[in-house]
Amino acid sequence: MEGSSGLFKKENMSQLSLAILFIIYLIMGYKTPEMIANVVDTLVGKIVIFIMVIFIFMNANPILAVLSLFVAFDLIRRSSSVTGIDALKMYLPTEEKKSSQFTAFNQYPYTLEQEVVKKMAPIVQSGSSLTKASYMPTLENLHDASTIN
Asked: Residues in the chain with pLDDT < 70?
């Protein structure tokens, strides 16, 4: 209870007004302006916000510090929805999803052509000895070309 009584002292009126602004921001759900959202929705913007929250944790009332943490998370969430990053994460497929869809599309049933080829073609196993052919190839006129060795 000591934390809340310290917030209402005369020297902490600026912290009280900031806490009231934070509560209004959280309850009312104001949309973040696009200019601010573009700054906040970057890595540098998020780091700056969390440095500010850490600064408030070290120097201000604990109630205000917890409120600032909630406001920081809510500001980042609202900024990502304004800039569209949130929608990209939600609806843009990942590489795993795309590859699973491709493998699903490339599953074909066993066709008649595959069955006929399997019956017709002699299967040569590795390591099996092949018999010598019963025919002898003949060369046509080479037209003054050299033989390939």
From this structure: 1-8, 10, 121-130, 149
